Amino acid sequence: MGLIGITLAIAVFLASSSPVLSENILIKGGTVVNADRAFKADVVVKGGLIEAVGPGLKAPKGAKVVDATGKYVMPGGIDPHTHLEFPFMGQVSNETFLSGERAALAGGTTFHIDFALQWEGSLKKGLAEWKRKAQRAISDYGFHMAINKWTSETAAEMAEMVREGINSFKFFMAYKGALMVSDELFLDGLLACKKLGALPMVHGENGDAIALAQKLTIEKGITGPEGHSISRPSYLEGEATGRAVKLARLLNVPLYVVHVMSKDAIEAIEEGHRAGQRLWGEAVAGAISLTDEPCWDPDFKIAAAHVISPPLRSREHQTAVKAALAGGSLQLIGTDHCGWNTTQKAVGRHDFRILPNGIHGIEERLHTAWEDLVNAGLITPPDFVRLTSAEAAKIFNLYPQKGVIAAGSDADIIVLDPSVTHKISVATHHSSLDMNVFEGKTVHGKVTTTISRGRLAWDGKDILLEPGSGRYVRMEPFAPHVYGGLDEQEKRWIGERFPYGPAPVKRVGDK
Ligand code: URP
Ligand code: ZN
Ligand code: ZN
Ligand code: ZN
């Protein structure tokens, strides 16, 4: 290589490896919304962090000024549940880290937690595989790890994952023959999580019963997407969720129930709350704004696009999900973003059992939740911040680094203009998908600016970040919000429950 070649190579290397530097930014005149209150204030961003929040702040040298008059200034959205480039049901979902995060940032989500899978039985291999997928990431991201096999290495590998910055593990009670775990494995997993201060997450559906119901549905001649809904009734979600909740109660382990879609599962969670459990329930954007009606659409493309597990459900369940978010039975909103193109979904045209499961929402979540919860009068803007950002930050031990507009926090910030109306469409979305399940939905309120770790990421028109400028964010174990006080509770524990805590337990009246 000649001198010019070397110079060029160095220039290309620098261009591709140098991080996009954070900027000085002043956000002026807006209403800052945190989970506890909303107040008028300016926000100064410097060095990737929020430097100051208060009235009448001066722009730092060379700062970009964002006029937020009449707008809300809120912590960037945290999506606790994504599947980018997800290998599942014989295919890999079309949405990559790059396209998915472009969509996320355009929709005001600045951090997401993606589900890495145990790979060839190994968690270490799974993490390496997901780090490879994330090489072209542009925003901050973290990982959960799903476990479906228990080997002699698994407990030690879980400890290693925690050292790598993963503080949550997912267990699937569905997908028989693939990701599904037995109650025995789930119990082992719960104990291992408790020891490590990690949070177990559960997909609550009875996989054995569903496998049989699927077979019977096919035998009845129902092969289309509606068969997916028919073979996964809400009571099987309620049964498995209730079982998971009770197994966690037995061992006194905190538990996070992902993608709660039904009244039945909500009731199981409420029962756990009444028993005093540390228990969180996640709604997903689709369950708030969609029903299962399109699964019966004669156009296969439309029906297939709405297939997700647990399935979208009737209006009655949708109303229950919204009420549970407003009333506190469910504590946060994710997406389960798992983006398949129509050609990928088409594989299941003649058999819903092989139709890839999953819908999208990473770009739409904040807008649709704003429309169907805040504009509908069910929750306030601070509730919105709690449900879409702050609570996830607390659960996954990132608070107050994320989830709040405060001096010292990461400058992950959105500006939402409540006066801008827009229509969601595949024609204008940033995702790589060729369908949009929210097509045609009108939303009053739009994210006009997104700041990711101090970098202007979205200006209302364009995504401004370079591929590869994303950052893996570690999440430490023993989140105070999840594990705080648990030791003390078990030390003093007397009474009804099985005492499988770490300390010896005496019953009332014992000498
Ligand atoms: O249908 C879904 N939910 N696909 C993604 C995998 C999961 O269960 O979260
Ligand atoms: Zn799941
Ligand atoms: Zn999922
Ligand atoms: Zn909480």
UniProtKB/TrEMBL annotation:
<dbReference type="GO" id="GO:0005829">
    <property type="term" value="C:cytosol"/>
</dbReference>
<keyword id="KW-0378">Hydrolase</keyword>
<dbReference type="Pfam" id="PF01979">
    <property type="entry name" value="Amidohydro_1"/>
</dbReference>
<feature type="domain" description="Amidohydrolase-related">
    <location>
        <begin position="72"/>
        <end position="456"/>
    </location>
</feature>
<comment type="similarity">
    <text>Belongs to the metallo-dependent hydrolases superfamily. Hydantoinase/dihydropyrimidinase family.</text>
</comment>
<dbReference type="InterPro" id="IPR032466">
    <property type="entry name" value="Metal_Hydrolase"/>
</dbReference>
<dbReference type="InterPro" id="IPR050378">
    <property type="entry name" value="Metallo-dep_Hydrolases_sf"/>
</dbReference>
<dbReference type="GO" id="GO:0004157">
    <property type="term" value="F:dihydropyrimidinase activity"/>
</dbReference>
<dbReference type="GO" id="GO:0046872">
    <property type="term" value="F:metal ion binding"/>
</dbReference>
<keyword id="KW-0732">Signal</keyword>
<dbReference type="InterPro" id="IPR011778">
    <property type="entry name" value="Hydantoinase/dihydroPyrase"/>
</dbReference>
<keyword id="KW-0479">Metal-binding</keyword>
<dbReference type="InterPro" id="IPR011059">
    <property type="entry name" value="Metal-dep_hydrolase_composite"/>
</dbReference>
<feature type="modified residue" description="N6-carboxylysine">
    <location>
        <position position="170"/>
    </location>
</feature>
<protein>
    <recommendedName>
        <fullName>dihydropyrimidinase</fullName>
        <ecNumber>3.5.2.2</ecNumber>
    </recommendedName>
</protein>
<dbReference type="InterPro" id="IPR006680">
    <property type="entry name" value="Amidohydro-rel"/>
</dbReference>
<feature type="signal peptide">
    <location>
        <begin position="1"/>
        <end position="22"/>
    </location>
</feature>
<dbReference type="GO" id="GO:0006208">
    <property type="term" value="P:pyrimidine nucleobase catabolic process"/>
</dbReference>
